[in-house]
# Entry
Amino acid sequence: MGNLNIDRYHATMGDASFKDETRLHDKRLSEAEATFYVTQRKLPFAPCLGHGRLVRLMAEGGIDRPRLRFLEQDRGGLERFARAVEDMSFVGAVRAVRPATIMFAGEPFADITGAFGLTQAQEIKFEHAFDLPMTTAAIAMQLRMAAGETRWLSDFSLRRNGDIERAVEVATYAFIGGFNDTSNMEAAHRLDIPAVGTSAHYWQQAFIEFMDEPEIEPRTGRPKHFEQVAFERWLDANPQGTTLLLDTINVYTGAAHAAMAATSNDARRRAFKGFRVDSGDLAQLGAWCLRFFEANGLEGLMPVLTGDLDVEGVKRIVSEFPQAAGFGVGTKLSGEVRRVAGVIFKQCLIDGRPTLKASNTPEKSTLPGRLQVFRGADAEGNYVGDVIGLDGEEIEIPGAASVEPLLAPFWERGRYDSIPSITKLKAFVEEQRTRFRDIENYPHVLSDKLRKLRDELTARMRADESNWRAVLSVPEEFAEATTHAPSK
# Structure
């Protein structure tokens, strides 16, 4: 049965819309056809992902009896809304861009049309469907761009994700956005992608008894350090090839003990494929270790760097230590995320009439009308610009040999388009990235027709200022109202 995946204001508005007191001219508000568009406003760009999550949420069954009783007994009186959601099957229509389409801040990537009473109550479903996938995929995509095409990116975020289901989803969208693999075994099993992982520091710590009862180094007759013993045991246990984690004591000491362990016999040398540095100045320490190992005859090792890495950190390491072979990213992928997508759901049509929120904050203003996003490509297939316009507009984009509308029917009356596999979604993201010459400065603007509609509607909505000023007292310090218009 479906959950009450709504805010209190959805229930309040929904209930009020079914009352005769809130009628429009010829119908109850609950019956008026409404369209809401969906976008994100926090990330410069992000692959649009979450279609599968949306389908699952939209397909939820009716509300069970205890939840209906909870609505009916609400102190505000939500009986009408309770009756409406008893079988909360949405019967309207959803349009969306193709899954994994790279979209820019403020561009509508989906919309939903249906009777106001129930359609407005779908808001949280869209926000829950798209926010996490787009946030994670955007971070992964930016990390891939920072790392370059050949360096390995591994999802090490399992411990930071709160529960296994969220962790699997993070691994999914990181993989689509540009990662190569994951440390998450459940995700690797479900998604059929590689599982990777080195030892933890406590492997070395577990051999501390050899500090008191040391083994003897045959080559020198001297006692072995316990960390060397730990590395030898690890290499012996992983003869097919493995990576040694160096900074349990400090990186310089760890590198020395790793070199002694790896050069103690041929099998251990063959098993030693790479090293991992997890603390300190990763670029400087990685470069030092590589030179140190090469000086001791250990060539061809893969430096893997981890430790609270973000996009800027990866960029710096690549510029200072281009020999870095790969990065493991965990905390900054899903835990300490500076900026989430911030998916929003805004009304743009009611009963066939364009509508908007003008707002005192320009960036919070919304767009009116049945919207469409048009993407232009040149003769070579490279993207040259996007225009947010009105459905059915004839759009010309400078430099474009072709212009494609991105929003297309996705869901109607329980039927929906199939969603590609994660490998196909990943390939689509990679293919698109090659078609943006400068994604950081890609033009995406409003059409002249949409801009005019927005500005004229805003002016009309604010046109009665002289009327209310004439009949109401206004404090002297009250600033003059201005018509805000987004810059795009």
The first helix runs from residue 8 to 17. DSSP finds 18 helices and 19 strands in the chain. The domain at 148-335 is CATH 3.20.20.70 (TIM Barrel).
